[in-house]
Amino acid sequence: MPTAIINQPGLRVHLTSERLEVWGINPDTNRDECLRQIPLFDLECLIASENVYITAPALAELLRRGIPIQIFSWNGQFLGNFLPAQNNHGLTRLLQYRKTLDTQFCLQIAKQILTAKLYNQRRVLQRLTASRTNSQNPSNSPNTFNPTPIQDTITFLESLLPAIHNCQSIDELRGYEGTATARYFQSWAVFLPDEFPFERRSKRPPHNPVNACISFGATIIYNEAVAFCHAHGLDPALGTLHSTEDGRWSLALDLIEPFRPILVEALTLDLFSHRILNANHFENRDGGCFLNEEGRRKFFLQYERRMERQFLSEHVGHRTTLRQQLEQQAIMFKAALENPEKFNPFRMN
């Protein structure tokens, strides 16, 4: 169990020997009892709602074992991390501060990140097109899928790769990233069910269920990347493609870019296409649309399954998981501080 998610309000988490015990009211017996035991030896992360009570001994043992804890509010807003105390990366951070001021280093890293993101966007569209073409019913001519516009987008994304390679500034790269992502989302939206339309990306707040899922998924993986940066001695605030600014972890935003198409957007599409989520799993508030408690529970479950599903990666040459590859991005970036050629962002098969 790499990640444990405790989302039900009122539950209590206690430490007992080498395991966590989750206590609460059993709905079948209406009695207060231990509902779940979580061994600590294979736990990598704990995600909990703000209404879950974690005892001080349990919290201390999690931190002692290097297990981060992520806390979400009752409405799904990420509130913060508890991270293990570490003070053995001073030289790494000093080097990182210096390299972040090196425009050529930042440009080289940003080019690799954006190239991998566009590659993964192309592969997502290629797979979706192949799946839709193979599954459509030829006799149903009014609804026959037309792959030509999608193929045009795939070709367009590929055509940007030489221009990205030749970019002379980060601002120029960001322009290509914005153009590519807008075109990609236009084609990606074709594969959504009709009852969940997607016209454009909206973030603060998300304006519809599709945007709500994209934003929630991006929040989760972003905070996982923050924890991995801290774990490997990096300052997650110092970005390359994303400029360093107060109020955000720019390096974490950089590292998750190649994972957005293959995790966040692909997962969102599956949740709606397979009817895992429906209109009852969302609520309108604060001028936007958000997942409700039941919707977040379903989202967390599918997110975790996708992050921990093993696959044979042609990119790394062995079996791995998306979570392992996300951590590997932080490890490679740390190595790239001394040799930029060691940074090779993840690409899907």
Which features does this protein show?
four-stranded mixed β-sheet; 349 residues; Ribosomal Protein L15, Chain: K, domain 2; 10 helices; Four Helix Bundle (Hemerythrin (Met), subunit A); alpha/beta
Mind explaining what this structure looks like?
This protein is an alpha/beta fold. It has two domains: about 5-80, Ribosomal Protein L15, Chain: K, domain 2; about 90-135 and about 145-340, Up-down Bundle (Four Helix Bundle (Hemerythrin (Met), subunit A)). The chain is about 50% helix and about 15% strand. The protein has ten helices and twelve strands. It has helices at about 55-65, 90-100, 105-135, 150-165, 170-190, 210-230, 250-255, 260-275, 295-310, 320-335; strands spanning about 5, 10-15, 20-25, 30-40, 45-50, 55, 70, 80, 280-285, 290, 310-315, 320. The strands form four sheets. Strands 1-5-7-8 form a four-stranded mixed β-sheet. A hairpin with a 5-residue loop joins strand 7 (about 70) and strand 8. It is globular, with a radius of gyration of 21 Å. Residues about 135-140 have low confidence and may be disordered.
CATH fold node name of the largest domain: Four Helix Bundle (Hemerythrin (Met), subunit A)
Q: How would you state the average pLDDT, rounded?
A: 89
Please give the number of β-strands.
12
CATH C-level name of the largest domain: Mainly Alpha
Q: Which strand-content bin applies to the residues?
A: 15-25%
Overall SS class? alpha/beta
CATH architecture grouping of the largest domain: Up-down Bundle
